[in-house]
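thought: user wants a sequence for this fold. calling inverse folding tool.
action: design(structure=
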């Protein structure tokens, strides 16, 4: 755990540099503002749109192509206010419930260090999250300006480069040789790579009717990686973004594998299945579980159930509907017992999984007040809270030693001394 902690420090340094350097460079190039957060609301510095606000130009580009205004929060074609609230809440409380985040507090030496660590984490998270909207706006501006409405033969180099990956493609439906982007669903297809001098494109599999005019396919997962190249930044910046993506993946994976192996080998195998298991056997079980989980993760990496942001939202929703209520009630309520916690977790996560699978993979519609699968974790969290409290009230209270342990968690012995010093 200590080794992973120091490794994560190095990975996070790479990650935050790789994330901020391109954002700052693009913001300076387009708006002249060093901070992406202020460039988000600044005017464009050069070019035909010079002097106009970035968001005004992006709004016009959207409406000219038939889309809704970029800054319009709700309404037709956009998510409802309730859905946005539920998605935001699920992301917030889901972060607090992620097991690989919770386990980091085992590697700090004191209460004061834990609080300081949480403060730094919130600071860096704020930097990341406030930079993301600026990156999204400049990415949309750069992409629409460079490819929409131009001849395919004059497409920029970055477009041809990403065509080779199959993550962006164009099909000339009206045979005019111009890349046209409309608010219709993107066509579905697969890469049709035929060689260095061949046409990359995509083989159409769906949405080929004349009713669907959209000729452009853009995979959502390439935006951050392609953004520096779209903005004509130096190659070393593009390489830095790739390094940051790899660092982010390794940082998360290392903690998740640690949590999975320790929970299965110790909490499940040793405490529930075989109380006589030796440390050697528990270590073997942990290693086998790591190998199995790596294979499962590899499969879903090759065949993702959705684009990255969507999958992340599902994970945070599951954490919000399962772990978060039990963590909060376990700290602030002496009356909650194991029966209530188990029932609440099972009920909350079961409802959330059912809703996600039904809506995203079985063709169902968001039937619960129009809340999407990305935000249903908030409803699962509420169900978890209610079931946990209800079952705990209907069953025997926890033993006195457990209640004393809860009190000690809320007010750790020596906490005042650690704060004073």
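)
observation: tool returned 421 residues.
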């Amino acid at each position: 755990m200590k080794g992973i902690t120091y490794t994560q420090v190095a990975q996070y340094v790479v990650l935050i540099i790789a994330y901020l350097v391109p954002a700052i460079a693009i913001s300076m190039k387009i708006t002249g503002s060093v901070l992406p957060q202020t460039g988000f609301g600044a005017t464009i510095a050069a070019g035909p749109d010079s002097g106009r606000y970035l968001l005004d130009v992006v709004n016009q580009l959207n409406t000219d192509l038939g889309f809704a205004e970029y800054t319009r929060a709700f309404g037709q074609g956009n998510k409802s206010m309730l859905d946005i609230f539920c998605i935001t809440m699920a992301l917030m409380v889901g972060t607090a419930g992620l097991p690989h985040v919770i386990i980091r507090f085992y590697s700090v030496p004191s209460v004061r260090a834990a609080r300081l660590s949480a403060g730094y984490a919130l600071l860096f998270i704020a930097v990341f999250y406030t930079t993301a909207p600026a990156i999204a706006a400049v990415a949309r501006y750069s992409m629409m300006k460079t490819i929409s409405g131009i001849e395919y033969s004059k497409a920029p180099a970055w477009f041809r480069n990403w065509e080779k990956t199959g993550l962006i493609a164009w099909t000339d439906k009206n045979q005019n040789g111009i890349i046209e982007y409309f608010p219709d669903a993107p066509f579905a297809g697969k890469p049709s790579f035929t060689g260095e001098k061949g046409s990359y494109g995509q083989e159409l599999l769906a949405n080929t009717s004349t009713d669907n005019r959209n000729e452009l396919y853009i995979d959502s997962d390439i935006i951050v990686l392609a953004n520096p190249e779209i903005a004509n930044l130096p190659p070393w910046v593009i390489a830095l973004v790739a390094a940051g993506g790899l660092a982010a993946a390794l940082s998360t994976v290392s903690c998740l594998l640690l949590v999975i192996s320790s929970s299965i080998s110790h909490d499940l195998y040793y405490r529930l299945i075989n109380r006589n298991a030796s440390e050697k056997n528990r270590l073997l079980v942990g290693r086998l579980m790591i190998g199995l989980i790596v294979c499962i993760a590899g499969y879903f990496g090759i065949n993702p159930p959705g684009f990255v942001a969507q999958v992340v939202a599902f994970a945070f929703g599951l954490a919000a509907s399962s772990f978060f209520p039990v963590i909060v009630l376990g700290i602030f309520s002496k009356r909650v017992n194991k029966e209530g916690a188990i029932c609440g977790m099972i009920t909350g996560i079961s409802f959330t999984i059912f809703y996600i699978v039904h809506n995203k993979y079985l063709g169902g519609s968001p039937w619960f007040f129009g809340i999407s699968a990305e935000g249903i974790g908030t409803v699962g969290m509420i169900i978890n809270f209610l079931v946990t409290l209800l079952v705990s009230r209907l069953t025997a209270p926890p033993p006195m030693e457990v209640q004393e342990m809860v009190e000690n968690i809320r007010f750790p012995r020596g906490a005042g001394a650690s704060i004073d010093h």
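thought: summarizing for user.
answer: Here is the designed sequence. The first strand starts at residue 168 and ends at 170.
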